[in-house]
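Hi everyone,

Forwarding the result from last night's run.
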Amino acid sequence: MSLVGLVAGTLYSFGGLIIDALVSFGLITSEETPGLSYGTVLAFGAIIGMPIIFAVFGFLAGIVEAVLYNTFARWFGGLKIDFDYKD
């Protein structure tokens, strides 16, 4: 999940940079952003922050899924898979 967070953080940071640059150069208008500012620099923190957040939530989701699987496996007998290996 941290790899997904890295991709999302990179897209967020560079996407925001492009929009802020276009607003600063007067090519587009926006009420949401004043253009290039300290917020643009702070958005690059998403390259570090989003992978950490995604990894934590992915880990917690894995714990919840494992507990749910083990609970249902006790009730319904689990999943049995036989692999036939032939030389």
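The CA atoms of residues 22 and 28 lie 6 Å apart.

Cheers,
N.
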